[in-house]
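User: I'll paste a sequence; please echo it back and then give the predicted structure.

Assistant: Echoing your sequence first, then the prediction.
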Amino acid sequence: MLTILFDGIAYGMLLFVLAAGLAVTLGLMNFVNLAHGAFAMAGGYATVILMNRLSVPFLLCLPLAFLFSAALGLVFERALYRHMYERSHLDQVLFSIGLVFMSIAATDYLMGSQQQSIHLPAYLQGRVFIGGVGIGIYRLFIVILCGLMALGLQWMLAKTRFGSQLRAAVDDRRAARGLGIPVVKVFAITFAFGSGLAGLGGALGAEIVGLDPTFPLKFMLYFLIVVTVGGTSSLTGPLLAALMLGVADVMGKYLVPQLGAFIIYAIMLAVLMLRPQGLFARGR
C-alpha cells in the first residue's frame, strides 16, 4: 500500500510540473491557454530525439527540453499570443484549441503516430527499499526534483523583484506601466518560463505517461482539473491538488480499476461543490 501511495505522490508531482505553467498563465496572467500541453509534448519529443538519435545523456536532456519549449513559447508569445491578451476568454479558448489540433497534426506528420519511448539510464532504474517499502528510483528522482522546483517557483513569485512586477502587471497593467514596469517583457518571460516548465514535465513524463501526437489532447483535462481544483491564488493550491489527484488516480487504478478515471472526476466535483473557486481562491 505504501508503495502505491508513493507512486501516486510521484505521479502527482509530475502532474504539478506539467500543469504549473498553466497555473501561471491562467492564474496570474488570466490567459486561457488550452495549448499548454503542446509545449509539454514539444519537450517530450525533444528529449526523445536527443536521447534516441543524438545519444545525449538523459540528465542533460532535461534542461535542454526546458530551454527548447521555453524558446518555442517565447516565439509563439511574440508572434501570436500577445495579440490575444486583451481578447475574451472565449476567443482565447478557440485560439488555443486550434493550436492544439495544429500541433497534433504537425507532430503526426513529422514524427509519426506511434508511441515514443526513452530508455532511462541504469542509475535511475530499479527500486530501493526504505523501511520495507519498495520505491522506484526514477519516481524518487521525480519527487525530489519536482519538490525543489515547487519551492523555487513559490519563492520566485513571492520573494523576488520579478514576482512583484508580475503580480503588479496582472493586477493593473496601466498602473504597472506608469510605474515603469516593462509589462510586455514581463509577460513574455512569464509565458516562456511556463512553456519551459511544461517542456520539462513532458521530458520527465515521457517514460511514465507515454508520448504520442495526441498528448496535448489527452492531458488537457488533467491540467485543467489541477488548476481548477487547486485555485489560482498561488502555486500551493495546484501543488496540493496535483498530489491529491495523483494519489487518488494511482490508488484507484490499483485498488478499484473498474472505476477507471471516475475517481478524480468525483474528487473534482466534491471539491468544487464545497469550494467553487478551488482550494485556494484568488483574492481581489
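The CA atoms of residues 18 and 201 lie 5 Å apart. The beta strands are 127-130, 133-136.
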